[in-house]
């Protein structure tokens, strides 16, 4: 067996380096060991790939390599907390079928109505920021993406039930980002449920409350089934499984659990980086404003998302700091050769998204923020992979870019903002997410005159 090279650094130290300086660590590994490396976890080889040819080879191989249902590394959410029938715990035909059900909300005719809603929510949230005051962009953007996610997934936008699920998810997201829970989630022996006032107990309490809310919502909505509603919950209530039977209330609840935080976390981090780059680079902001102003006041959302330079800026943001550094895993089920390396059954494969996006042969001057590269060249789905690829790619990947464009365009066209800190923003890493350490502090000057 010929495995890719293995870093000499002890695993515990490598993980510490990855947590403290994720992108610097990955840059150093790439420079020394190349674009395919092996890290041994006991007797299991874990192979990280940032070679486009190798990525294409194993993503398109469904015979020797299969989808893995193992959860992402470092996630504090366990399988039993979100149900065994959630989308990341399914495989085969069942996974393919459920995935198609969830994707309906993020494509087709619904996008136009959703686009208008995104613009309305964004105007409301940015309008709440006090003039002449500072605010944390990540916090404000999180409120926008959470409200959009709740509306798309459950169909709630106001009222008592909306306020309750918004409060629960806001508390859960805030708790999962807390330093204390990050430490607890890495140390299994500290994961003791000592009630709501203990870190792990509070985490378990929130997951249980969310699960119960979703279950109650499913049962209530099934009693008042309305086929005209356009949200994921309605899609699932009226759906049938691969055998022709309606999905159970438990199945629907489990499928609803993940889309809201998944849509909120990754989308918020990407939007935060987008606001950082656009307000850090004057030329980029100027060119964007010229393009946006060409549409006149109150443009149609579908015309906004079609703007080429806006699209390029969003793509470059996702290239330089992808919200997920690694893809979901795949597993070798029978001996296979990948670009000259022989992989045995049980080998786990991850796409190293960040390092793929940093290849100088694909992206000259990769550390520079250069949106024009996406106007000059069309990159393959194995070179530009911000949402992973294949059957495990992010369900809402294209929607995430759609949302990024509308939120930025709505705020940039109507308000003058400024970065408070002039020093470069530091990227941090947790739960496979690459986020801005400070949350990006901004100053609200006021409304912009067209």
Structure overview:
The protein is of the alpha+beta class and 450 residues long. The chain has 2 domains: 1-67 and 325-370, Uridine Diphospho-n-acetylenolpyruvylglucosamine Reductase, domain 2, CATH 3.30.43.20; 68-324 and 386-447, Cytochrome p450 (Orthogonal Bundle), CATH 1.10.630. It is 50% helix and 11% strand. It has 19 helices and 12 strands. The protein has helices spanning 11-20, 22-33, 52-59, 79-82, 92-103, 110-127, 137-153, 160-176, 179-186, 199-223, 232-237, 249-257, 259-280, 282-293, 301-304, 308-320, 353-357, 373-376, 397-414; strands at 36-41, 44-49, 65-67, 134-136, 330-332, 336-338, 341-343, 348-351, 415-419, 427-430, 433-436, 441-447. The protein has a 5-stranded mixed beta sheet with strand order 1-2-8-5-3. A 3-stranded antiparallel beta sheet has the order 4-12-9. It has a two-stranded antiparallel ribbon with strand order 6-7. α6 crosses α19, α10 (199-223) packs across α12 and α13 packs across α19. It is globular and about 60 Å long. Residues 71-77 have low confidence and may be disordered.
List the helices and strands and how they pair.
Blueprint (H helix, E strand, L loop, with lengths): L10 H10 L1 H12 L2 E6 L2 E6 L2 H8 L5 E3 L11 H4 L9 H12 L6 H18 L6 E3 H17 L6 H17 L2 H8 L12 H25 L8 H6 L11 H9 L1 H22 L1 H12 L7 H4 L3 H13 L9 E3 L3 E3 L2 E3 L4 E4 L1 H5 L15 H4 L20 H18 E5 L7 E4 L2 E4 L4 E7 L3
Parallel strand pairs: 2-8
Antiparallel strand pairs: 1-2, 3-5, 4-12, 5-8, 6-7, 9-12, 10-11
Helix pairs in contact: 1-2, 6-7, 6-19, 7-8, 7-13, 8-10, 10-12, 13-16, 13-19, 16-19
